[in-house]
Write a structure and sequence with these properties.
This protein is an alpha/beta fold. The protein is built from nine helices and nine strands.
């Protein structure tokens, strides 16, 4: 279920709002002064443009559209910041609609230094919802807001096919309900990261610490249930993202260690 093609205003609104203002200013100068300057080479037309400029209304109209797009971009960015900063736990994430869930995941990656593109190729039924770019790498992201259902292996296989089709570097799937064992086995050893609810929450909390809470309001931390059960109150903090760690066991040696609950997003251990 796609979301349709975007027009000029939508495309410009997807960029940072200062870009919209710059495009508007440059376009205004080019239309109001650049075009008449070209026609002024003709002496007859130059005399006509000396008294009136027929391109001036068009220049103002273009500037107005760009200002509207910049305003849309500004308020959309503000909404996404507040959307992330007001999440206090998994319960507050599960109340979101699928569209706001996509925005939340995108904002969390944006604060981690990624350029985020909302593709319009996904939807409530899935697909490529986000494209991340950083350091020359392109990552495809699918967001699954399934609360009581785990993502099956068929969905992971489909995204792996899209990875090859779009020649991307990596695939990430964010799913509140987690993944089936078959899905986890299929992703093992491939450029696929599976982000379940606890890992996503850890990523959100890290983004909140990076960007600050909306309107000076710090999000309250609540305990998270992950694969290892309720976190120990005496657990050390992750050396990478400062999130309380969980007890894990090495599958080969059986030796216990502290691991970050956001694995594989964060690979901190103690």
């Amino acid at each position: 279920m796609g979301r349709g093609h975007r027009g000029f205003i939508d495309n410009l609104a997807a960029l940072p709002w200062p870009v919209g203002l710059c495009v508007g200013g440059i376009g205004y100068i080019a239309i109001a002064h650049g075009i008449p300057l070209l026609f002024a080479r003709d002496s007859a037309m130059g005399v006509a443009y000396r008294d009136s400029n027929p391109f001036l209304p068009l220049a103002w109209a273009f500037l107005g559209l760009c200002v509207i797009a910049a305003g849309m971009s500004f308020f959309d960015a503000r909404r996404k910041r507040r959307l992330l900063d007001t999440r206090t736990g998994l319960d507050s994430v599960t109340t979101l609609g699928w569209r706001d869930f996509e925005r939340l995941v995108g904002e969390a990656f944006r604060r981690r230094g990624y350029a985020v593109e909302e593709t319009g190729l996904g939807g409530a039924d899935g697909g490529i919802d986000l494209v991340l770019r950083r350091e020359g790498r392109r990552i495809l992201v699918q967001c699954k807001q399934w609360r009581r259902e785990r993502v099956p292996v068929s969905v992971v296989r489909e995204m792996y096919g899209l990875l090859a089709h779009h020649r991307a570097d990596e695939v990430r799937i964010a799913a509140l309900g987690g993944f089936t064992p078959d899905a986890a086995r299929f992703a093992d050893g491939k450029p696929i990261e599976l982000i379940d609810g606890p890992a996503l929450l850890a990523m959100i909390r890290g983004a909140q610490r990076t960007g600050g809470a909306a309107e000076g309001m710090q999000a309250k931390v609540e305990p998270v249930l992950g694969a290892e059960g309720l976190r120990d109150s005496s657990a050390p903090s992750c050396p990478h993202c400062d999130t309380p760690m969980v007890r894990r066991n090495n599958r080969r040696t059986g030796e216990g260690f502290w691991g970050c609950p956001a694995f594989p997003v964060c690979r901190g251990t103690r």
